[in-house]
Amino acid sequence: MSKMEDTTKETKNLGIDFTVEPVPCSTMPLKYDDSLCIGCNRCASVCQCDILLPSPEKGKHPLVVYPGECYYCGACVMVCPKPGAIKLSHPLMNRAKFVPVRRPEQE
Ligand code: SF4
Ligand code: SF4
Fold first, then answer.
1. Domain residue ranges in the chain
2. Residue 28 CA: which ligand is closest?
3. Could you identify the atom of ligand 2 that is nearest to the CA of residue 79?
4. Which residues of 69-99 are buried (b: 16+ CB within 10 A; e: fewer)?
5. Whether pTM exceeds 0.85
6. Separation in Å, CA 38 to CA 81, 85, 107
7. Ligand 2 center from residue 93 Cα (angstroms)
8. Is 62 in the pocket of ligand 1 (CB under 6 A)?
9. Is the CATH code 3.30.70.20 the one for domain 25-89?
10. 87, containing H or E segment
11. Best CA proximity match to 11, nearest among 44, 53, 45, 49
12. Which tens digits make up the pLDDT trace of 37-73?
């Protein structure tokens, strides 16, 4: 039997210590680059869906607690002072492009 990964994190928000467990989701809307992120938490403070919580580790990117609640507004990417530190990863079905249909009589 495989050992289940412990995803719980101790964190502090508004001066309160608590434990969070990211809610499992088939999509992960955000990709962080640890080499660029400075852990300023601006992305967490601007998210209107509150899916992010500041990391308990200073200088690390926020925790994505409710990935399924993201509506891909892009505010977190736009507010980030370090280009490339955070990227949006849209679900596959949202990446489809609609192209005009050419009927044979139009050619
Ligand atoms: S894209 Fe919008 S909803 Fe999703 S995490 Fe960023 S700010 Fe929040
Ligand atoms: S705003 Fe950018 S640099 Fe700041 S914590 Fe978020 S990803 Fe990292």
1. 25-89
2. 1
3. 1
4. ebeeeeebbeebeeeebbeeeeeeeeeeeee
5. no
6. 9, 8, 55
7. 27
8. no
9. yes
10. strand 86-88
11. 53
12. 999 999 999 999 999 998 888 899 999 999 999 999 9
